[in-house]
Amino acid sequence: MTAAAPLIELSGITKIYGSGEAEVRALRGVDLTIRAGEFVAIMGASGSGKSTAMNVLGCLDTPTAGTYRFEGVDVGGLDRDQRALLRRNYLGFVFQGYNLLPRTSALENVELPLIYKGLQGGERRQLAQEALEKVGLSHRAHHDPSELSGGQQQRVAIARALAGKPDVILADEPTGNLDSKRSREIMELLTELNISEKITIVMVTHEEDMASYAGRLVTFLDGSISGDKITRKAG
C-alpha cells in the first residue's frame, strides 16, 4: 500500500432494513475515505446512520449496496470467515460498556482476543503486558474489573484493542459512561496513541467536546454525510 492510498474507502454505501412500509434506509449512498494515521470523529443525531456506518466499517454488518474497501481489498467479496479474520487481525474495538469479563484479571481480559489469534501463552502474556503499559495500567494487571474505576476499565478495554496491534481502532462512544475528568483522560490517551503509535482511530460520539480531540469531524444526517472537515493534521 502506498502512502497516499486510502486505508478505508466507502463508495455508495447503502443500508436498508425491512421492506415495504417498514423499510428504513439507514445509509443513503455514503462515500467516505479514511487514510492511515487519521483520527476521525463521527457525529450525528440518533438515527442519523453513524452507528450503522461504524458497524459496516467493523465488518459487523454488511451493506445493501455499495463498495467497502480495506487496504484496497473489496470487503464485500470476502466470506464470513474472511471478514472474521479481517476483524481479528486488523481492527480493534472499544465500546461504551467496556465489555470486560467480570471475574477475570485486567491482564487476562487483554489476552482474550490474542487467544483467538492462536498465540501461545508466553507471547500472549507479553503483548498484553505491553498493551497495559501503554495505557498506564501495568500496576493494575492482576486486578479484576470490580476493583477498577470506570476510567481504568475503559483503559483495559483500550489495551485489549491494542494488544493485537491493529491498523484501526473503532471506538463507539468510548466516554459515554464516564464523568468529564475521566472522559478527558481517555480522549488524551486515544490522541496519544494516534500520534505516537500511528494508529488510525474512528470514533462515534455525540459529545462535541470529545469530538474536538479528533483531527477530522464527519457529521451524519438522515443516512448521509452532511459535513466533513479537518480540524488538525493526522498524527
From TrEMBL:
Domain ABC transporter: 8-234
Superkingdom of source: Bacteria
CDD domains: ABC_MJ0796_LolCDE_FtsE
Enzyme Commission number(s) of this protein: 3.6.3.-
Keyword Cell inner membrane tagged: yes
Cellular compartments per GO CC: membrane protein complex; plasma membrane
InterPro entries per the UniProt record, alphabetical: AAA+_ATPase, ABC_transporter-like_ATP-bd, ABC_transporter-like_CS, ABC_transpr_LolD-like, MacB-like_ATP-bd, P-loop_NTPase
Top-level EC class: hydrolase
Alphabetical list of PROSITE patterns matching this protein: ABC_TRANSPORTER_1, ABC_TRANSPORTER_2
Pfam families per UniProt: ABC_tran
Keyword annotations: ATP-binding, Cell inner membrane, Cell membrane, Hydrolase, Membrane, Nucleotide-binding, Transport
Molecular function GO terms recorded: ATP binding; ATP hydrolysis activity; transmembrane transporter activity
Keyword Transmembrane helix included in the entry's annotation: no
Family: Belongs to the ABC transporter superfamily. Macrolide exporter (TC 3.A.1.122) family.
Name of the protein: Macrolide export ATP-binding/permease protein MacB
Lineage: Bacteria, Pseudomonadati, Pseudomonadota, Alphaproteobacteria, Rhodobacterales
Gene name of this polypeptide: macB_1
